[in-house]
Amino acid sequence: MNKKIQNKDNANLNLMHTEIAMNELKTFFEHTFSETLNLLMVSSPIQVHKDKKDLHSFINWKRTTLFKYGFTHGEGLYTNLRSLKINNALEQFNSFYTEEWEWEKIILEKHKSIEYLITEVKNIYSSIKKTEDYMNEFHPSLQPVLPKDFLTLPKTEIEKAYPDTTLKDAEEKLIKRCGAVFFLNEYKSTNDESSTIGFMKAWNPLLKKPVTLFSIGLRADVEKCSSVGGKVDHTNLCMLLLKKLYNNEVKPCSWKEENDVINIPLGTK
Questions:
Q1: Which of 223, 212, 225 is nearest to 124 (CA)?
Q2: Among 209, 269, 264, which Cα is nearest to 96's?
Q3: Percent helix, strand, coil in the chain (nearest 5)?
């Protein structure tokens, strides 16, 4: 729907306008993201997990699916992953349901480099920026907050930049100053996980704290092929671009109250 919605309460979109805006956001981002990275959308099973080992298994699912579909170098997939954390204690505003854009792409061995990784990071960030500008065009109250460019920094360099503070505080100060920072980590893997991985974090001025927008990693070889992949955080992205204070405003949540599980519909507080 390309109809401008005038909202007198600044960016505080009501329930109906939030639904409209979020559908526009998801549709535009998915189109731009998949076109920029050359990805095809595929269906994926709902993931039910108890711990982090189950999360790692989805990386194997993505890579196996790449070969099942017959993708070749430079081609990949993305999916709207829905997860249920069945072992999580149900607390107020602690959702056991999460939603993320997961993706994976086959690359050549020569592309297993930090330079190539940064290129893909720029592509993802560009897709997010275009989505932010698109949302502002049709919803003027949704003013852009992301900088045009981001800072790339190895995680080990943070302490050098802010030697007189804790790592957490140093990271927060840096992100607040720059607006968006891509933190790069490198490590050797022994269990078929990423050998190079990074996280894009941005400053959310409404929450007054940094949030993780996406992660990305270069994978170990599988069947003599390498891949790059990661995930985009659906909740953090929607909260940032739609100016929302609570995660249950952009996704269904539940909490336990007097031994009963209360379902909270999307958009309520």
A1: 212
A2: 264
A3: 35, 30, 35
In Å, what is the CA distance from 214 to each residue of 26, 180, 183? 15, 11, 11
What average pLDDT does the segment 25-32 reach?
97
For 181-240, what is each residue's pLDDT tens digit? 999 986 555 444 456 789 999 999 999 999 999 999 987 665 567 899 999 999 999 999
Angle at 205 (CA atoms; ends 204, 209), nearest 5 degrees = 55
Tokens representing 1? 């729907």
pLDDT at 190: 46
Take residue 115 and report the two structure tokens written for it. 């330079």
- The burial class, CB within 10 Å (0-12 / 13-18 / 19+), for 95 is buried
pTM for the structure as a whole: 0.83
224: phi then psi, degrees, rounded to nearest 5:
65, 20
SS3 67: helix
CA distance 60 to 53: 11
> Which helix or strand (DSSP H or E) is residue 22 part of?
helix 15-37
* pLDDT, position 109: 84
Residue bearing tokens 């050998």? 195
DSSP string over 220-269:
PPBTTBEEEEEEEEHHHHHHHHHT-S-GGGTS-EEEEETTEEEEE-TT--
Q: Which two tokens stand for residue 17?
A: 């306008």
Cα 101 to the chain's mean position, in Å? 7
175 contacts 201 by C-beta, under 8 angstroms? yes
